[in-house]
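Late entry, evening session. Most of the bench is empty. Finally got around to the prediction I had been postponing all week. Sequence below, unchanged from the version circulated by S.P.
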Amino acid sequence: MGKWLVTLGLILVAAGLLWPWLAKLGLGSLPGDIRIERGNKVFYFPLTSSILVSLVLSLILWLLRK
């Protein structure tokens, strides 16, 4: 269980570091991503992008198990 948590943490750190380059590809501004701006406050929730990343990671992990 500990190895999985460390691996998940490293994946999240890598995704965070790669996010500026992924944003240039359109990830983070897909239809369905929620962005609310009120004054100088911005709330951003990348719903569609999260689902897409989850599907890709699930496919990769499924292929690695076979």
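Two things to note before I forget:
The chain has a mean pLDDT of 86.
Residues 2-65 form one domain.
Will write this up properly tomorrow.
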